[in-house]
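subagent[fold] <- orchestrator: predict structure for attached chain, return tokens only, no commentary.
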Amino acid sequence: MEIYDTSIAGKVAEYLLKIKAIKLQPKEPFTWASGWKSPIYCDNRKALAYPEVRDYVRTSLAKAVEAKFPKADVIVGVATGAIAQGVLVAQELNLPFAYVRSKPKEHGLSNMIEGHIESGQNVIVIEDLISTGMSSLKAVDALRDAECNVLGMAAIFTYGFDHARQRFVDKNCDVVTLCDYDNLLPTAVNSGYINELQVELLQQWRKDPANWIGA
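subagent[fold] -> orchestrator:
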């Protein structure tokens, strides 16, 4: 995983904190669907409600795709959070769009991939958030099963967990992100959102999120 541009990373962090798409609550942790206790909550879909933020994310993701994956034929979003973001990027780059469901449709054609994709096409996957990487890579597997050439993935934000990084390496899938946990924390400190003591606690969580029990 790599950051596309550190200046963009800082601006994206500012935006996400400002609109409360990312909330940091070290003393009042959230509970994820997995059962993990977390001092951070991230909902990048909120960016869609703010035209200035939405436009910045759209153009930044498009620039990242052009720079990192210039031979893209199709943009594919991961359902459901990255469908809208993927459409915006596809529109910006004037490319076809499709999306991948989390599981095959339970009626009709039982599709997992929705839209028109042809065997051998170069595909870029768009994600709004990468945490463990499992759902993101499930989409990559579905596209490869359909004989697409997945060039890589572009995401708005990643926690940067070591085990997630390794999963992408094992799957031979390059990832470029606009912002990550390491860029978020100093931005949050500089804006007065959190203090230095809270940063230490947040860093401890990232090292072992599955067993973190809170402050």
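orchestrator: received. Logging for downstream: Residues 64 and 70 are 9 Å apart (CA to CA). The chain has one domain: 2-201.
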